[in-house]
Write a structure and sequence with these properties.
The structure is a homodimer of 429-residue chains. The first copy, chain A, has two domains: 5-159 and 309-367 and 393-427, Rossmann fold (3-Layer(aba) Sandwich), CATH 3.40.50.450; 170-306, Phosphofructokinase domain (Rossmann fold, 3-Layer(aba) Sandwich), CATH 3.40.50.460. Helices cover 33% and strands 16% of the residues of chain A. Chain A is built from 13 helices and 13 strands. In chain A, the strands form three sheets. In chain A, strands 3-2-1-4-5-10-11 form a seven-stranded mixed sheet, sandwiched between helices. In chain A, strands 7-8-6-9 form a four-stranded parallel sheet, with helices on both faces. A two-stranded antiparallel sheet of chain A has the order 12-13. In chain A, strand 7, helix 8 (226-240) and strand 8 form a beta-alpha-beta unit. The longest helix of chain A is centred in the middle third of the chain and has 22 residues, at 160-181. Chains A and B meet through helix 6, helix 9, strand 9, helix 10 and strand 13 of A and helix 6, helix 9, strand 9, helix 10 and strand 13 of B.
Amino acid sequence: MSRPRNLVVAQSGGPSPVINNSLRGIIETARELPEIGTIYAARHGIEGVLKEELLDLSAQSAQEVALLRTTPAAGSIGTCRYKLKPGQDEDFERVIEVFRAHDVGYFLYIGGNDSMDTADKVAALAAQRGLDLVGVGVPKTIDNDVGDSEFRLIDHTPGYGSVARYWMQNVQYANEENSGSCPADPVLVLQAMGRKIGYIPAAARLADPEREMPLLIYLAESGVNKEQLADNVADCVRRHGRAIVVVSEGFHFGDIGEVKDAFGHTSFSSSSITVAQLLVNYLNETGLPAKGAARGNVPGTDQRHSMAYASPVDLDEAYKCGEMAALLAASGQSGFMSTILREEGSIYTVRYDEVPLAEVANSERAFPASWISAGGTDVSDEFVRYAMPLVGADMVSLPIVGGRQRLTRFEPIYAEQQLASYVPQADRK
Amino acid sequence: MSRPRNLVVAQSGGPSPVINNSLRGIIETARELPEIGTIYAARHGIEGVLKEELLDLSAQSAQEVALLRTTPAAGSIGTCRYKLKPGQDEDFERVIEVFRAHDVGYFLYIGGNDSMDTADKVAALAAQRGLDLVGVGVPKTIDNDVGDSEFRLIDHTPGYGSVARYWMQNVQYANEENSGSCPADPVLVLQAMGRKIGYIPAAARLADPEREMPLLIYLAESGVNKEQLADNVADCVRRHGRAIVVVSEGFHFGDIGEVKDAFGHTSFSSSSITVAQLLVNYLNETGLPAKGAARGNVPGTDQRHSMAYASPVDLDEAYKCGEMAALLAASGQSGFMSTILREEGSIYTVRYDEVPLAEVANSERAFPASWISAGGTDVSDEFVRYAMPLVGADMVSLPIVGGRQRLTRFEPIYAEQQLASYVPQADRK
């Protein structure tokens, strides 16, 4: 066996409650593998590579690493929305230069489709430049939009089960709120994340698989217009005295003054108004069902870092994806993403496998049209059967010390910088 | 001892995670007391009395009653925003008539200042009309606005400790989100409930009593204007690279198109825009710190029914307030509210006591001005010492069955109606 070489792990895009558990899976596995030397995290994703900010994870205590399990979001090593776009040749060459300077033989990128593309391109360029680099992807997104629509590349992404659990439990509570406070407050609007793909709002159905609540669910792709939606709500209030309306942030209800991030994705939390607010205003203005009768919640980033509602299944799967990625790296298999594939049969079982990064990068997932109910106000039992196993049977126990949660706090121990400082191309004025 | 007479309990105003635990305290205590006969809940507060909709709580299973402990909000018996205003004489007479028809000797009203006023007036009218009725109040509000500013009538209201814990834990997570996602998303704005009194946004400080986070806290009463706030944020981003801004829904940042409820209170969740949105837009438009750099969360009702973040101290205290109220009722002491008073000394201890309803109804609490830091961007250590014991040392364990939470489900067993139907005065067209 050849000498051990160092590993760099980085994160990209929005965080999830379990993203750090994939990181933990990588660290706790890689540190046991003789092929792998020092484990570094690029601070704030690929920007940390470009700026040569490499946090030494091998120097951190085992306890802080263990606490990553229940530390949500990406504060520990950071994430980024910096994209290595085609044409940013200097950036690509800089990445290779930094990896060479720190004897990096393994690059693990935790993220969505875009990140899988980046990991693939970096590994390909390294090969061209004669750097022996294994590039491996680790899947992550709360909106479950990685891979293909038929679940051949991945069944679901780590992160989704936890946000689904958040919605399951919070819609249970919202139903207590709404049923308790009607008739004064008959309409409660809840805005869910997920941009153009409806897995997150769909998860509201998990709160009520028997359909006992007056619950209306609108995906961005539901095919319902503004007037139909308002009619549905008024009708629901007429029949049940109240309505809980879960609506995707990406549902088109009018101009929200959208703002786009570096990936060209709409950043709904930064828009000048939200769909929930537009809907509340429309219902209140049109008097459907009565002026001031609708109110709205926009939990925003809460749903992707509310750790108490994380799914234990999701936590475990996120870990295993990290572990699998470290094993793939050590075995020298470049150009793959670790993945979760569901086994056939009525009992939920998964296996962890590998799929080519290029296939993931070139795939695009859609919410199955057959899972949207006729009329576009609900999702089907097939969706419930798909999603219910992902939320887990119980809640996660959190380490509370003196009332507050004990979160991972890494020491700021960085690799010594070997190169001249560098300004990432997109950051130059 | 005279024959047992029946009890009616009702709730008013916005719910809390622990309001049902006061109800449980009442039921589990009253059912053991020989003075008390059947325990009824007025469905949807005083409206249920007017409409003679009396849910039979004595007929419910002990298990469903026990599950009230972790069932948030007011879905089990309902609450209302219907106010018995002076001059609504028919309504007042109807209440007495309904109580007489059902041999009600005890009326327990769970709510805030307005409800204490109602309970007091109903008891006084009953006495005038020759109906022997004991009226007792049970305190409840998430915004801790019951009683006086010097904490002589009540130290804090049941409900506040849980929403404080929600903010403590969620600001810990928001800090992970914000530190992880900067520099792309440097400003995270979180909107807190509490109208014109700042106890809820202040609780964000409990996440970081050592002041290590770039956290700015704005109460409605902070005395900061729009430009100062934006300057504070820009300055915080310059110094720390990021900022978490917790702002009260009642902070004046511009016209929010407010909607008022039946009590004349602003219903911020129904306004045509929120302060968080106005702030996000202002920061993004003025480019402080950069276009699209601010995003906002408006958790709305989530913070008052997110049961996983309930405070165990708050749960216990809510129960004891219900228990105390039942004991006061059985002992024939009309015109009092059960209350929580803090004992002197550095170790947190409370005693449960009684205070006159009229005094509570005529009091008005303000957030102590001395607890707002100079500059209006924070709260003081005195506030932290006051509030920290209320959030408890650990989290509450929830009964999860098959993934979802098992919530109280009462059987729809109602007292037989004795009177002609009645339309509450304020509901008449």
